[in-house]
Specification:
By secondary structure, this protein is mainly alpha-helical. About 30% of the residues lie in helices and about 0% in strands. The model has no long low-confidence stretch (mean pLDDT about 75).
Length: about 90
């Protein structure tokens, strides 16, 4: 008796998903194949350009500026000095 229950359960596990898949496939619409036109026609005339105002004269680029180096500090390069001020530190 236990063997027949196992066979029924196995058949249900296999048959139910297969039945759902077959029903879904049977009910789907088949898309029409795309129709390719035999001849393609393009516009014969080119569009006429619309008159525009002349572009303004480009602004001159700024001359190269010499910038002084930042001051040398003793702190490590990875320290950004944003952690805490000296007043906020608790030295003990």
């Amino acid at each position: 008796m236990a063997f027949s229950h196992r066979i029924a359960a196995l058949a249900a596990v296999v048959a139910i998903p297969l039945g759902i898949a077959a029903t879904s496939f049977a009910l789907t619409d088949q898309p029409k194949s795309p129709e390719v036109p035999t001849r393609v026609e393009l516009d014969s005339g080119s569009p006429t350009p619309t008159p525009t105002r002349p572009a303004p004269a480009p602004t001159p680029t700024p001359s190269d500026e010499v910038v002084s180096r930042p001051p040398v500090t003793d702190s490590p390069a990875s320290d950004d000095d944003d952690d805490a001020s000296d007043d906020d530190r608790d030295d003990g």
